[in-house]
Hints:
By secondary structure, the chain is an alpha/beta fold.
Amino acid sequence: MESSSEFRSVAWIVPHDGFDLEAISTQLRQAGFHVIACLAGKSSQVTADLRLLPAACFGDSHELRLEYTSDSKPTLILVSSLEQTRAALGFINESDEVGQVAEPVDLLARRLSRLATRSINAEQLHALQHLDPLTGVSGRGQFMGDLIRCLEEMLPGDVKGLMLLDLDHFKGINDRFGHTAGDQVLREVAALVKTEASPDDRIGRLGGDEFVYLFSRYDRRTVEADARKILERIASHPFLLLEQDQSATATVAASAGLVFLQMRSSAEEILRQADMAMYEAKRKGRKHLMLYEQLQESATNQDKDIHLQHFENVARVVTDRVTNQITQMGRRLVEAARRDANQDGLTELNNRRYFDARISREIEIARNHGRALTVALMDLDRFHNVNMMFGWPTGDRVLKRFAQVAADNIRLVDWVARYGGEEFCLVMPDTDLEMGCKVVERIRSSFESSTIESLDQRPVPVTVSIGVAQLTGTVDGAVALIDKASTALLEAKRSGRNRVIAARVA
Length: 506
């Protein structure tokens, strides 16, 4: 038997935690593959050589494509219908594969072996060609070599231009969507730029979000027009990203500096001039193309030192980035502090502080607009006995399970707060007493049927008693409303627990 170090690892996307891959894992292990089960959106975080995407794990081709582009691992997509096959072939890279779910394991293993071999060859080829491994365009060293050769071989009358392109506010993409999404944007930008390339053009990535494009055209006007076309193509492209498990469309713009090559110029000087023009474009409001010749002319007319102006532009951009970073950090800290102040640490529901602050506003809104408002006070039955018999950690497990059950059985406009200890309060705007009782009965029934085990795997019996009250003209504020619900709750306890009692409408 081969050692595990000789195995090729496969990140296999599964529809949910606990999905059984044991049978297929055993068979593939005999073929030299180690299967790692992971959820959608997580494969980029898994150290694996290959990735396998069953199309059935995704609702439609859009979700499948989003998952496919989220990770650059060599990928095999498994399909089960002609529609899925057509969808996958519409976006899959030539180096990846599409297979059938019903294929025998030995054929699946051969596909994975072919994919692994192809990826090794591609990595070796990239290394030889000095390509940027993320985007597939030339790396900095390869592009600089191309630029030097281009300058050395220039003839009188040749029209060549170099554009240095930098994505605007790219750090915001990483901060909002994560670095995996940022990498996806860089790959798509590179693909967009390549669609505008002529056979003699050269494209490279200098690093980060900076790309360089070397044009070879018949005249300067065409170079400038094509450079603007690339910026417009990027700005108009909808980038599909993932935000909190939901697909989102984002737009990305770029600023660029354009320099026309001169015979006997050095590659370093050309890049320095393009950098100056690019930063001037950012100063002018971003999403802009600036020609170095225009920058020179403007500085001369205004009697400015072009190098000092460049320093000021760089300082301004850096200051903006630092300011934005500090602002975002401050927002996150304030949001975290606000969340900590209003959220119960154990159940992650609203806490008593939040409840006291909001319930009065709910009552005011209901009265001002003539709307119904119903509250339910929910108390876990014999919770003290749970702690005594099973321990406090199990008690915490019960509290968290109830919080989950309650949250899963209410509308978006309803909200739950941990009122204290094992007591919870549900607030239901635009809901009368009859409907409120139906909602909490659903919660009571779902909680009673929940399977909860102690840390030593003993079953924990759990029920909840609930008192429900509706806001009426005779109820004088939040305290009186909660008192009515509390009276109904006590009646539910005295009547035998595990039931819903509605307060009498006065």
